Amino acid sequence: MPDSPMTIPGVGLPAGVNDFAFKMGTVNGTGSASANTLLMQAIFRMGIPVSGKNVFPSNIQGLATWYEIRVSKDGHTARPANVDLVVALNTATYAKDVAAVRPGGFLLYDSSWPLDVALVREGITILGIPFGQMCVDNFEGDRNRTLLRNIVYVGSLAAMLEIDMGVIGELLREKFAKKKSVLDANFRAIQLGYDYAKQHYDCPLPFHLETMDATKDFILLDGNSACALGAVYAGATVGAWYPITPSTSLMEAYKEYCERFRIDPETKKRKYCLIQAEDELSAAGMVIGAGWAGARSFTSTAGPGISLMSEFIGLAYYTEIPGVFFDIQRTGPSTGMPTRTQQGDLLSIAYLSHGDTKHIVLFPANPEEGFYLAVQAFDLAERFQTPVFVVSDLDIGMNDWMCRRLRWDDAYRPDRGKVLSADELEKIQKFSRYADADGDGIAARSLPGVHAKGGYFTRGSGHDKHAAYTEDSADYQEVVDRLARKLVTAASAVPGPDMHVESQSRVADVGIVSIGGCHAAVMEAVERLRRNGLSVDYMRIRAFPFAPSVRAFVESHEGCFVVEQNRDGQLRSLIALETGLARDSMISILDYGGLPLTADRVVAGVMQQRNGAKAGPKLASLASG
Amino acid sequence: MTSITKPPVRHPSLPKNSLGLTKRDYEGAMSTLCAGCGHDSVTAALVQACWELELPPHRAAKMSGIGCSSKATAYFMKQSHGFNGVHGRMPSLATGANAANKELVFIGISGDGDSLSIGLGQLCHAIRRNVNVAYLLENNGVYGLTKGQFSASADVGSKSKRGEANVQPPIDPVLVALSLGASFVARSFSGDKAQLVPILKAAIRHNGFALIDIISPCVSFNDHDTSTKSYRYTRQKAHELAPVDFVPLRHEITADTGASNAVSVTMHDGSSVRFRRVASEYDPRDRDAAYLHVREHQARGEIVTGLLYIDESASDMHGVSGTIDGALVDIPFEELCPGSRALAELMDEYR
Predict the structure, then answer these.
(1) Which of A422, A459, A598, B10 is the most exposed, having the fewest neighbouring CB atoms within 10 Å of its CB?
(2) pLDDT at position B257 over 60
(3) What ipTM was predicted for this assembly?
């Protein structure tokens, strides 16, 4: 009976005070991004938990773009499944925007242009405000009118949603402190929109804002900035990169932080070297060259760049050179959808390059964790003398997230791993670069320029434990077997999974495994499922190679759900490969259309399977089976 | 093979440099290249040059890619760190290593396959960045390790060992470097140690990217009568532009080689390179003239050798990017990490 009506807990809940979602449909390149940021910041400063998702095109000017804002008094930050209010400002997408309003919701459109009657929909409230015409009547110059139109709609939304006008004014004054004329124009625009809405409509709407005190210890930060800040705090001095969406802003943020924190006060010279490379191959080479010479070095890229770096990653793995590689995943394969999110690089990164290779990979769930894991990545890379990946995604990387204020322990000192000093080299009889003295799989290394006894030859060709060229089977195997041991050691040094179990003594009926940017949606789903009477345990994987607890969790939860954002269930396959558990013993819940995951998707996936199971014959898992 | 395994016995009469090191101390592992390979002569010239420059071996970094030439980094200065990376990508490794520690002396060794085909992009961009590395391109017109395919530097009409003629026009690294703004461009011949040693010394002392294209015949696959990269052909056609002397800073200049036809260029560290002019109009500081001169001689089937162009005023990568004096790797962590207070202030801005 697969067609029987299915209830999804939480879906269709009426929007209320401090609990709703709205989105703006605008045209790329018209200045709407700063207006949308202004809206989000204003809500945040009113003390109300808020999240924003920028759904933008791979384009500089002219294509459709949306910005979704979710207000949640309970602090949920996942992308909303339902939109209560759509602000339609792009005539090209009116049809889509009208359709996006949830039943009972509102559409606010620019009535300077008539709305096609064919688009009028039953069951929603349509409100028109002539934003464009108001700007023509009140402001001079085409560009100015286009830009201020965004501010006019902010004003109207302030009236309809009860955004604190004082806070908006404060934000505008901060932003345009040095531009009096711009500031004045913005204030006029805000007021125009506000007054029009107040005069023509019943304000506020049934769902609106009320000041809270829930964001005091929080900040709004994107993951790319957070990771870049982590690189600065970890002491990284060499960055090399090639521009690619959505990773570019990580390197740009690193540059900005360095210009602030890493300029010698006396000489005005830089305590960092940032190189825009000719391609990702070269960027990887520079990172590895710098790591070999003893610097903490890193790059930031996305899937296509990871593919290009693959050859160099094999070299760094085999020659045991540290480096940190941030992968801000986007929708693949190939160019794919560069401005949409996905978790499609999990399998390729775990074993990137040719030959037997395996890597340490960290998976932050949000910008806050991105900062801390970035720092840890540099420690792990040097301790294990190997490339370490921090795998984020477009949603984490480019959207502003509400997260706890980042903190720093001044007692932190970098873990540089086994690096021999000049004194240690002086005392040594003979330096053998790849000899494992203490059985942890990690050999001591020497840096160039330190001591004549430390000189050795780094080569990607077959080498023995003395770093000498070899084509001898036993000598070759001795080294690669040690590399395997090193990764075993790493499994207990990387961050273990983030466990959310109901009870330590009893295994819950439902087990959910997930990773990275899915976390916010899964946490919300878990809460809803539990409210609905299900007992649910949730494990979020934070690193590869997997800690032993990963296997234990999957094994103890029969029919464990694996939630991830790719078509083929890559995390599920990786768990099967690494733990030896059957792939079919886990059930995939997949979402790979390029948009951030919603809690509804996860709840529906779980309920669909459970209802099906109750019905008798076991249904195939969603999507890939 | 220049460096056969020798007993660690020091001959008391071997000359020593100011570091107390003999030339043997600048040698490396035994060469595995073919007997008579031009690359081994280049290695011997490097040993001589580094010994004469009194380089502390552990302060040098030897970088290479993949190919016969790239193997040569193992055959000299065994106390130095060496890095045999991946094919065609040595320039990026050298760039990164130099970014981290610019106090090291970087010697890059590559070949025509490594630099002009798979690695042409990286070579070009390392030149553009003016990375401080002496870049030796050991050029034999052929892929040796894969047994005799033409490389991108093979001349049109030059025949392979099997008699097949190359039909594609060659890429000339000297012209590429000149057009990309290289600050040091030279061409030499592995069989001319007298010319090569001072050029290598000047290249190592040059503060920026120094390209030395070295014709280095492949005895196994490209040294036959119909090849234009053979010993015989090169000896016949090489046309020395201007004999070079390298004068280290601390050596007093005693002999004047003739002021009227000499040009002296002061290097970054105060040492100097002096040219005795053969072509009376030639000025090694004139990029356009250098380009024209090379092209004119090529049209006559001649190979111009010597230090063709030098610009000591150009800033290297660090000069351009304004990096601090001294190596980045030597900055203490405390100076790199902004600390908790700065972070707290920063957090206030994200509200």
Answers:
(1) B10
(2) no
(3) 0.94
Domain harbouring B49, CATH code: 3.40.50.970
A311 in contact with chain B, both atoms CB, cutoff 8 A: yes
Any idea which of A114-118, A489-493, B346-350 has the lowest mean pLDDT? A114-118
**Residue B233 maps to a domain:** yes
Answer for the pair A360, A384: CB distance below 8 angstroms, yes or no: yes
Residue A216 in any domain: the answer is no
User: What's the predicted TM-score (pTM) here?
Assistant: 0.95
CB A419 within 8 A of CB A447: yes
Shared-domain flag, residues A164 and A308: no
B residues 201-230 lying closer than 8 A (beta carbon) to A: none
Residue A329 contacts B where some CB pair is shorter than 8 Å: no
Q: Select from A196, A153, A134, A138 the least CA-distant residue to A38.
A: A153
Q: A243, exposed or middle or buried, with CB in 10 Å at 0-12, 13-18, 19+?
A: middle
Tell me the C-alpha distance between A231 and A566, whole Å. 28
Mutation pick from A458, A461, A469, A471 vs chain B, by most beta carbons of B within 10 Å, is A458
Which residues of A fall within a CB distance of 8 Å from B122? 278, 281-282, 285
- pLDDT tens digit sequence for B331-351: 999 999 999 999 999 999 999
User: Which residues in chain B have their CB less than 8 angstroms from residue A408's CB?
Assistant: 339-340, 343
- Quick check: A426 contacting B, CB < 8 Å? no
Closest residue to A288, CB basis, from B79, B91, B96: B96
Using the Cβ of A471 and the Cβ atoms of chain B, whether some distance falls under 8 Å is answered with: no
Q: How far apart (Å, rounded) are the C-alpha atoms in residues A314 and A281? A: 12
Its domain, for residue B300, covers 23-334
Domain assignment present for residue A369? The answer is yes
Q: Considering A343, A376, A404, which residue would you say is the last residue of a domain?
A: A404
Residue B75 lies in a domain: yes
- Which pLDDT tens digit goes with each residue over A248-283? 999 999 999 999 999 999 999 999 999 999 999 999
For residues A56 and A188, membership in a common domain is answered with yes
> What is the phi-psi region of residue B170: left when phi exceeds 0, alpha when psi lies from -120 to 50, beta otherwise?
beta
